[in-house]
Amino acid sequence: METTHVIVGLGNPGFKYRKTRHNIGFMVIDELRKKYTVISKKRTRLYQTFEININENQKAILVKPMTFMNNSGAALRVLIDKHDFQLNKILVVFDDYHLPFGKLRIRPKGTSGGHNGIKSIIEHFQNDQFPRIKIGIGQDEMPDVIRFVLGKFNKVEKKKLSEIISNTSEACCFTLVYGIDKAMSTFNKS
């Protein structure tokens, strides 16, 4: 029997935000689209979806909300209601400025941690019980967090970025195939 999973990468739509730290979730979705054949795709006002086969028994719907980050929950709510997906079966991928650059943290649930995209999802569902992969974008001494997350990666970060994106896309598929507990013990390294 075939199983369908959903991977949501958080980011902001538009060329202006394409290569910013806050869009690393979108970058992971783009990487998965490159690694696997896209069977079908759809674009609505609220989201883009791409269907891929992970293996012969499992497929995934890759999702990019087309709302801005602060309203990611609205797009996800419409998608879930329309397709009858379960929130606790959706894997959300996003940036975390509290984590050192490139560090991954896989969690089965949790608070927003100050991330506005996650905060929006929690508010729209009144529920924080969904798995997630946080990608460290590094802490900065800048007091302006918004300017930092909406900024572009520096030269040092750019050199490591493709490896981080590739590793995260691998962690996504591993999580779906082997389960969150095994994924946490494999990818949540100190």
Summarize, please.
The chain is 37% helix and 24% strand. By secondary structure, the chain is α/β, with parallel strands linked by helices. A seven-stranded mixed β-sheet has the order 2-3-4-1-5-7-6.
Give the total of beta strands: 7
Q: How many strands, what sense, and barrel or not for the largest sheet?
A: 7 strands, mixed
What's the CATH H-level superfamily name?
Answer: Peptidyl-tRNA hydrolase
By CATH, the topology is Rossmann fold
Task: Give the helices and strands as they follow along the chain.
Answer: EHEEEHEEHEHHH
- Percent helix: 25-40%
Number of helices: 6
What sort of overall outline do the alpha carbons produce when their principal axes are compared? globular
Stretches where pLDDT is under 50 for at least 5 consecutive residues are none
Beta fraction: 15-25%
> Can you identify the CATH class?
Alpha Beta
Give the radius of gyration.
15 Å
Q: How many domain regions?
A: 1
The second-level CATH architecture is 3-Layer(aba) Sandwich
Spatial ordering of strands, largest sheet: 2-3-4-1-5-7-6
- Give the end-to-end Cα distance, rounded to a whole number of Å: 37 Å
Query: How would you classify the helix and strand content by structural class?
Result: alpha/beta
Mean of all residue-level pLDDT scores: 92
Can you walk me through this structure?
A hairpin with a 2-residue loop joins β3 and β4. The chain has 190 residues and is an alpha/beta fold. Strands 2-3-4-1-5-7-6 form a 7-stranded mixed β-sheet. The protein has one domain (3-187): 3-Layer(aba) Sandwich (Rossmann fold), CATH 3.40.50.1470. It is 37% helix and 24% strand. The chain has 6 helices and 7 strands.
